[in-house]
Amino acid sequence: MTNLSVFGEHAKVKNYDAAYEPWKMVFDNCPEIHPATYIYGERILKDKIKKTSGEEQKGYINTLMSVYDGELKYFPKRYSKADVLAKKALLMYDEKTGNSKEILGLLDDAFQNDRENFSNPKALYLYFSLVVDEYEAGNKDLQEVFDTYDAVNERIDGELAGLSKVLDQYVAKEEAGETLGAKDKQKFNNAKINTESYGKIGGSIDSKLGSLADCENLIPLLQKNFEAKKNDAQWLKRSAGRMDAKECSDDPMFIKLVEALHAIEPSSKSAYYLGVLNDKKGSSSDAIKYYNEAVSLEKDSYKKADILFKIGVKYKQAGKGTTAYKYFKQVLDVQPSNGKAYLQIANLYANSANQCGSTAFEKRAVYWKAAQMARKAAQVDPSVKSHASQTAASYEGRAPSKQDIFSSGMSGKTIQFNCWIGGSVKVPSI
User: Fold this and answer.
1) How many angstroms separate the CA atoms of 274 and 268, rounded?
2) What is the mean pLDDT of residues 279-303?
3) What is the pTM of this model?
């Protein structure tokens, strides 16, 4: 107990060298005495690993692996199997102490047997990345890559759905002018950090999949498996979603998937895909009917926002900007923290610059309005923060310069927009 207290005091102030010996005594002799042995032990050993090399470093790595095993053995209610296996896999990967098959084995065990607790963003990416590497080495087939891709993305979406609810609550509080307490601020900040992490990981997973999911690879595989899987709703949903995401929905295979899905499990997803099909055929009224059905069938706000967003993108791609805008606004009504919707609105504003204003200055002032929307995206949604900030800067670069403002005599004045955008923007004062 004395050594527990001693190493705890040293570790709290990050004096890990002084903490090591008393910590080691506790870990070796009474590993079950207190969870602090594992909380601080991980920090102490990571510090030692960073400061050492060779056999000495290897010894600390092995001890940390033992610490992770002890977490699950002595404090199973505090630590999950998935979390412990993910930490072990990442340690082996970062310190190059295991081969890819060993690391993949740990991550696969975690994902297959304790999926609901597998939430480490870096470990999720590493898991999918190693599956792709195994495919490229000829050890896995393409279907397994797609199945893993879908399962990992569903896991990420599950985490983002929970985080979005937290963000929505605090965005609403901030916009109402409520002051957040210390605990609320910490909870909000944690949600923002985690959302940003999952956003980055999602993009990295898509990049890793790359051309493997292009239509020429995807369609033959779906054709091959359709008869065996045509009554499997999950497979049909994933397959149709993949074809839609990769712009393969012109292929007859997409029709087969959607019709089979709607026959066995009518849902918001199948109604949305029927909307896509009717859009492709030029049946706008039927497309709108199915899109609206998809929205009404979906009760989960996160999933409803996703459907509304996809519909908005479809209309935007078809050149129907004002209709797209209405859907993106509905996204924000359902999910105020959806930065992607703000970015799409910003882009619609920017694309309409020539339609708004009677002078060149007024037309270019639309870019300030677009930049405001992009800044809002960065503010409410950490998953798009980096891209949104770059986009805002780009729009601001296209807006009137300080010289333009000076020459026009518009400094500090307000410009009203009489086009579809509506509203106004205040010219920066110089």
Assistant:
1) 10
2) 90
3) 0.76
